[in-house]
Structure formats: structure tokens, C-alpha cells
## 1
Amino acid sequence: MLNTDLAELRQSTIARGVGMQTQIYAARARNAEVWDVEGTRYIDFAAGIAVVNTGHCHPRIIEAVKTQAEAFTHTCHQVLPYENYLRLAERLNAAVPGDFDKRTLFVTTGAEAVENAIKIARAHTGRNAVIAFGGGFHGRTFMGMALTGKVQPYKAGFGAMMPDVFHVPFPVALHGATTEDAMAGIEKLFKADLDPARVAAIIFEPVQGEGGFNPAPTDFVRAIRALCDKHGIVMIADEVQTGFARTGTLFAMEQHGIAADITTMAKGLAGGLPLAAVTGRATIMDAANPGGLGGTYGGNPLGIAAAHAVLDVIEEENLCARANELGSRLRQRLEAIRAATPELAEVRGPGFMVAAEFTTADGQAPNPDLVNRIRTEALKRKLILLTCGTYGNVIRFLAPLTIDEAHFAEAMDILEDSIAAARAE
């Protein structure tokens, strides 16, 4: 069957709200390569949006899933528990930043992890309000939408959001927003609209994902930690996209030397299987009553087995160091391109979570049209890229950390040619 045939089938079967950046229908994939139903091969710089950090179909992960599938695929941990669930919780409790006793909960998606983090913070504090940040993304459920700091396409048309969610600016130097601006926004909020004694949690991404790969400055992270400590607020780090070696450390918060009270994670945790987790201070995590947390598929045995293998691969193949190496080389190549490309306003991001933001040549306005042309040109040349940012003017680079040297080099050449071709249009 052809991609065009499947595209027609999609029109008659799938809800319009399920967006698609390409009309490439995957047939198989290995590491950083994907082949479509027509046999065309692509280099994947999306990795399922930072999900297959360990590459498509890593042999260790496939073997772990096969072994588990031969034992059992589902019992519901709340009915018949299993040891691997406990052992993975033990590993995450040790790995997540913070020198304190921790507890972990497994769920299925990143949005579900965020929802549960808010539930737990409210149960612990007895408060309702939550502070989030402009440009942040936390999911498509109603609480996830409410927390997300971007209207289009996530909130438009869905009616009233969840109450008691407040947004303040996120520090983005290129856009003229500093840590001081962000903290002043919170102080203004406290003066005008919100008693800090009503705030259950402050949630932020250590590197904003959908918002444009904007890294949180360390002084901002420290200021949020101090504010939370002052007012008894739960600090939540949303590491759904930043987790599992993507930023050059297992978790991005390690780079700030600051521990959140609760950390949410998903995406790269299970190498492509649906698994998410919430890990946090035991005194906070244990606030919910038995039965208040969980879900039928939460901590599915196949996902748990895959996650154990992912953690093994990250350690044994030194993927944190690999992320730093690849990211450094990517940034160097982009900076070389930038020297002759006035529209390339900034290259940023830690580890292999790198972004390139494009503006008009005079730097006065976002340039989403150019970014879309670059993405389209790259796709013609068989390189899959993703865009992001509040204005859709950012290209984000999310290749697997295990990408072969030859494929990385090939992708860099395609990227440079695509930028040149897009600018020439």
C-alpha cells in the first residue's frame, strides 16, 4: 500500500484533531533509521518526540520485552503485583535528584504523570492553586491543558480550563524575559490575585519542550526552590521530555544541583512502550489514600521490563556522555551555518536536546514560514525534523542518542542543504 492510500484511509477513519506532521507511514525502524510502507528510508531526528533515546528496536530492549511477554503481559499491579515494578521504583528512587527518602508511582502517559503529581501536591498541602509558566507544555488532558502555556492548538475550542491555575512568564533571554521578570511575575500574582498560602505547587520544565527548547537558568531554578521552601509549596519538575540522558545527564535537574519535591517522567523511560512515572519525597508521595492513585495499565509489565533495559543501556553505552558529544557537534555545525544565515537567531539547549530558532533577517519577528520550508526541504531529502516554539519558529533536534556516526554526518549535510534551499525560495 502507498502512503497516499493510507492518507486517504486516515481521512475517513481518524479524528481530525489527531495532528500529523508528515504523511510518512512507518513500516519498520532500526536505531535512527525508519523505512516507510513504500520502502523509502529516512533518518529520524524526532525519535518519537524524545521517546526512543536508545534508538528504534534496541536489541536489549526487544529481548527484555520478549522475555516478559512469555511470562505474562498484564495482571494489573493493583490486583496481582510483580517484583519488576518494585525494582524499577527502587532504581528511580535512587536515580532521581534529591538526597531524601522517595516513593514512586507508575502510570501510562506523561499527561497522566503530571495529573497525578498535581493530585499528590494538593493532597499533601490541602491547597488548590498551581502556578505554571508561559510556553510550558504538560499534556492534553484538562489539567494538562490548563497547565500548558500555549493556546493554539492545545486549548482552542475546548471551553473553560481547570480553575486555580495561574501562568507567569518563563525566562527566555532571546525574547527579553529574565529570571527577574519571572519572579516579579509571581510576586505580582501574589499581590493581585493569589495568596501564596493557597498554592499547592509550582510546575516547570527544566528545558521547555514544545515551548521552544528554552533551558531554565540555574538562578531561576534556585529562586523557585527558595520560594517553594518559603511558602510550603511543592516544587514539581516536569522531566517528561528532558529525562533519560537527553540533556547529557540522566535528569536535567542534575545540572542545577537542585532537587524538586516531585519529578514527572515518561517518553524516554521505556524505549517506546507506554510508561510514565512520578517520583518524589516520601512524605509528599504518601499523602494520597490507598486507591487514590494508580490505573489499570499503570506500570504494565512490558513497559516495566523495557524501562529496566533502557536504564541498563544508558549506563552501559554511556549515553549521557554520548548526548553531550553529539550535542556539541550539532551546535558547532549550526553555529557555522548561523555565521552565514542571519535568520538563525540562536542555537541553544543542553546535551542532545538542541534547538535552532529562526527570525526574520533583521531579527525583528519570528519566522515560522522559513522553519516550515526547512522542515519540508529536509523531508524531501529524507531527514525527519520537528518544529516547536510559541510561534512555530524553532527546529528541535531529537535524534536517538545511539545514532551511528555515518547517519549523523549524513543528517548534518542534509540539514545544511535544506536550510540553504529554504532560504533560496
## 2
Amino acid sequence: MEILWFLFAVIMIGAVLGPVLLRRRGGIRQVAPGSPDAADPANYGFLRQEELDIRMPGPDADLLEVLDLVQRTQEWKAASQLLAGTETHGERRWQRVQAFAGAASLELQQRPGGVSDNPGGQWLRVWRAETPKDAGGAAVHAEFLVQQAWRTAEQGTDEFRIILEEAKDACAQAALLAPGDPVPYIIELSIARGLAYPREEFEQLWLKILDRAPAHMGAHLAALHYWCEKWHGSRDLAYGFTEAAAARAPRGSLLAALPLFAVYEHLPEVNLVRGFYESEVVTKAVEGALFAVHSARADDPMLAHVRHLLVFFLVRCQRWSEAMNQLVHVDGHVGALPWTLSEDPASDYAVYRALAVAGYEANGGSPATLPH
């Protein structure tokens, strides 16, 4: 199967893989586009690349409906009502706050103030001005400032620090409006990373989150970045943080998948080497994530995040059937790691999907043998 990884390397620099993989037991080779033997993801009911939704990791019909309404009308009330009706301590509230803030940030990027009579994100400014005590609006505004800092300012510059300091104040205001809500403190985790909080200060912030939502997967993922080698920790600290969280995870919690995210954050630079993906550390993390997926609630909002990362690792491990089983559940939405780190998330996802299909069929699989 070494030819597979040669093909993969070629693909990642611009080749289009999907229509040119031949099913052949024990191996994969290129064929002409349109060949009847080419592995075709469409045979499995998967969406075309241009139809993939890059905004979210999985479906949230209520959020999409409200986002469309807010952006079409520039009226904020529907967003406020949706957040007010979303469970305070759940994962979905955090995801929705991120989505609204991201929408406003992207609007502003596309229509900056002073250039248009209708600058992007105006609905968020009106929301905060008209209802300053709305906890949902305060949280969205804080997250908006964080996203602006990371998106528009160079890390380490005065501009970057100024925006994050403003975001920190906004988090404090949001926390005062909703004392039991973990979201303002989760938002501050990104600020802590950007402003390089001392470890003691970061741990105090983390305790506030644990007091409010000890099993919050989104919070753990945000905190993991601080402990990573590329930020303010190390590989050992990151692994230790995730393994401790997985060990104390309640039954049905996706925290058992957290070590896989730590492995991803510390991938070696030459990460196409098959031996690495057969190593004990990767195998153990993958098995933990598979266990978490199998025992989690089907409606857990973080489930799609874990499944997407599993697709990445299962393809790299050449565990084709298991990769296909994850794809069945997530296809259609690609707003999750690792795809969101790419300039073209849909394209990267489609490459891995095509590899999974080709590997699955090369080893005797077919649409008829894949459970849905």
C-alpha cells in the first residue's frame, strides 16, 4: 500500500483524487477520469465537494435558519431568542455563540466600516447597544472580539494585545450577566493563550469552568491549545491534560476522545510515515476516540468533531472500513478539525473521503456492504 501514500502526497499539492482511483484488492492505482472502475464517493450517497457545508461540523437546523434570517434582515432578535432558549451549560450554546460571532466577523471583513453604508456585523453592534444586559449578546460580542484579534491582527503586536484586552473586559461583563454560564470563561481561554497568561492565572480560569461545566468537551479542546508545545506547554503537559480528563470522564462523555486531539496537535512534521500511525500512542488514542463515539449520545453536539478527526486518523492508519463508518455519519458538513485549518476545507475533506472509498473498495468493500 506504499503507492497509496505516494498518491496522497501528489494529491495534497493539487491533484484531484476523487474520480481517478481504481478499486483493486490489495492495491490502488490511478486510472483515467470517468473510468467505470474509478472509485466514486457519490456511489455511497456522499455529497459533491461543492455542496459541502464548511460552516459547522454537523447539522444544526435551528442555527442555520436563524443565521440566514439575521444576515438577510440585519435584525438581531432571533439570535437573542435562540441563545436564550439554548441550555446554558451545554455544548450547543458554545457552538452557537461561536457561529454568531464568526458570522459577524466575516461580514465585517467583507464589508468593513467606512467603506460601505451598511458595514458588516452591524446587527451585533445594534444588539449590544439596544440590550446591554442581554447575556447572549454579551457573550457573542466577546467571542467576536477574540475572533477579530486572531483573524485581523498579527500575533504579538500591540494591536493584537489591545483587541484581546478589550475582549477580556467583554468576557468579564458577560460573566456578570450570567454567573452560572461557562461560556464567557471558555471564550477567555483563547485570550489566555494569546496574552500568555501565567500558568497559575490560567489554572484559576480553568477552575471557574470546571465549577460550572466539568465535562464540557468544547472547553477542554480550547484549554488544550494552551498546554500544547507550540503555545505555553509541552507535549507531555498536553498529553497529561487530555489523559487526566479522559480518565475522569463520566460514562457517555466524549472526553475519552480528548487524547486524540493532543496527538493531532503534536503530529511530527513528516507525518505521512506509516510507522507513526501504527504506533502505540496513536493506536491507543484512536481506540479511545472510537470508544467515546460508540458510547456517546447520538445527539451530542460534539460528536461530529470527534468523528471528523477520526476520519483523518483512520485514513492515515489505513483502517478503511472504520473510516467509511465515520464518513457515513458526518458527510455534508466539514466545519471541524482538521479541515478548518485548510484554506479549502471542502477540498481537503474530499481528498480523505476519496482515499477512504478507494481503500475500502480495494479491500473488497462496496456500497452494499457499508452499513448506514
